[in-house]
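Re: beginner question about structure tokens

> Can someone show what the tokenized structure looks like for a real chain? I only ever see the sequence side.

Sure, here's an example I had lying around. Input first:
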Amino acid sequence: MTGDELRQAFLRFFQDRGHKVIPSSSLVPHRDPTLLLTSAGMVQIKPYYLGLETPPAPRLVSCQKCFRTTDIDLVGDSKHLTFFEMLGNFSVGDYFKKDTIAWAWEFVTGHLRLPRQRLWITIYLDDDEAFGHWQEIGIPADRILRFGEEDNFWGPVGDSGPCGPCSEIHYDLGEEFGCRKPECKPNCDCGRYTEIWNLVFTQYNQDRQGCRTPLPRPNIDTGMGIERTVAAIQGRSSPYETDLFSPLIDAVCRLSGKEYGLDPNVDRATRIVLDHTRGMPFLIADGVMPSNEGRGYILRRIIRRASLFGRKLGLQGPFLNELGEVVVETMSHIYPELATNQGLITKVIGAEEEKFIATLDSGLTWADRFADGALAQGRKHLAGEEVFRLYDTYGFPPELTAEIALDKGLSIDWEGFQVEMEKQRERARVSLRGTGSLEVRATVIREHTAFVGYQECSCESKILDLVTEKGSVETASEGEAVDIVMDRTPFYAEMGGQVGDTGEIEGPEGRAAVTNTVVTASDVIIHRSRVVAGNISLCDEVEARVDVARRLDIARNHTATHLLQAALRQVLGDRVYQKGSSVEPRGFRFDLSHLSAITEQQLSEIQSQVNEWIRQNLRVQPRLMPYSQAIADGAIALFEEKYGDEVRVLEIGEPPISKELCGGTHVSSTGEIGLFLITGQGSIGAGLHRIEAVTGREAEALVESRLATLKSLSRSVESSMEEVPGKLTELMGELEAERRRALWLERELSRRIVEDLVGSTEQVDGVTVLAARVPALSMPVLRETGDMLRDRLQSAVVVLATVQNGKPSFLAVVTQDLTARGFHAGDIINQVARVAGGGGGGKAGMAQAGGKDAARVDEALQSVKGIVAGKLSGHSGQ
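And the corresponding structure tokens:
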């Protein structure tokens, strides 16, 4: 049975038992900031278990793409993977342990035909219910082993969420793969037993303090790793030896000329390249771009690590894209987003790999430098900080640094390295703390709010809940900050990149100013407010009023983002995809994927096209339709967003020039936008650009501001506004001519200075020394002066000082014959500048420095002879 056949058999087995097949969710978790990447099949099921969302069916089954960042450093052995596929069946309050256990056994023995004598069962210590169900289907008691929380209790994914005891099915690879100890059984570290299926009985919700409370209804979450299970089916001891990896292994061996299975070092490097290359296309297709933080750092790290270990296989140039193409070819029939984004995948991997290769030699140079420095200092190890710097800056795995160090007879300060790693982890934890978690306000607020803001900007409503820092209250008084929940609201809650509405809520005895509107995962709309007059109480009949002018500013900007995306795809090509946006009253930003630079001409075309559509006053029409129909009709959806069965599609024009899934607020026709102006554009990462723009009132204000600036310039240069560009060009030309003239004069002055100084040298024990203060010269001309003096004097130590705008500058020049005797311009200038409160350095032949105290320049120059004399006598001096 192949990997494809296992995937199909699993989904079909549970589909026949009433399960709805759901597609894999993105590797970027939906609305769950506790997770960096999707690491298990149950991630997209988590809101159903918590009662935050309604599942499409109580029985679900999926094949989920997963990425586990904790295993990156372990990849290279025969077991660990970062990217993998997880098969899973899920029950949301439907069946529980009995059916789960029976079906699991039926599938592994009846459909996969794994030998019963090779299968072992593990359960949680006190889970007698699971023990009984396993015995009911004929498993002997001595084949059911009990383990504690570390092995058989499945904690929450992230720092909080559903959890519970689990039962695992282990496959015995055979005695030859184990430690041969009599006590060797499942969960032994020797690797003889492979866990192929984990059945998690999610009975509890664990909060961030570790407290567990029973869920309203127990659920089932199972996970079968395709790679491990295929290895068991195909009689292999490692997933890397299965058909899932064979096309990649063939490609690596072809490119490197190495053979897999003969040399442990080659095998390890090959496995690292294989695993990381599988993960790259999936991360990029799901919108992750290389960066120095978060998910982007994970992508950058695996690209660098794969490239690095490719070099150990003899692959000196870029090679990852050839392997990436194999991944797309072999897996896009299951994950079509790979083929859809193949162009982007190729460009991102290629650009990032070439960028790393350019730094790789530098990294190796630094590694050698650190090692040589340690030897020079008499150390027998590389410092942890040095190892971490190579790891963090150049992507060097510490084991590679250890190999370089070992070649020079050095060890590694692993303890110091771990200290630096812990500092980095703490920085990451601190940055994540502010993002919150998926914990739900629904424990306090469970009322559903009807949103009427598409049709009206004010409505009558009723207060359902008030929450202050004290918790739920019956009344909030003047001055108190309060979260208000109503049964109906015209306020749009912050979502999809659009900021929330503001306004006011007025009741019979008071009024509250709404400063923001947000929505919980369970669709409760919360009005962040402050009572500004009287009291607001539970069950008050109130009038809710949105700030209409602000709402219209936001609507103009939001509709403009749709026009912008349509124009971008028209000018740059239909492979442009939105990667994020922020829509506010004063303007918006729009992030997009596009590998090439966007030229000024293209920006001009994009802006002109958007304004043309605005002038055409195209109708903006929202429609509700099934998600599948919307996609079939060509509507654009954000890949990382999660949509329900019915979606809102916004069409602009007839026939539509734009069709996108969108729940935001918009104008009713494009003419209401008025004017669209792009205010900024730049790169925010490999293959990512950000465009900033304004519309309506802000665009009008911008035009007025720029016209005022132009009028001011025209007065300053004494010309009409139309003549300003030409006049500025003329003035800039005159200024440049004056700069060239000043430089010529400065150089002429320096030549005369040289003539004067040649006769001012002194002798220090046979060494010619010149230390002089010169008129104010720029540093480039001061260096030219030093070059001329070196040529004229032939053998000398020269130190020049100048003061410009009250700041001293120093230059030291040492002729080649004296550098051979140990004189170093960098050392000399550093000692001289220190007298004037500064410092500097440079090469042996020429160096420069700055100072702070202009009054001590002459004193600094007087120290030169002493420094030279000290060097000649074998010790430094001033």
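Each token stands for a local structural state, so reading them left to right follows the chain. Residues 342-376 form the longest helix (35 residues).
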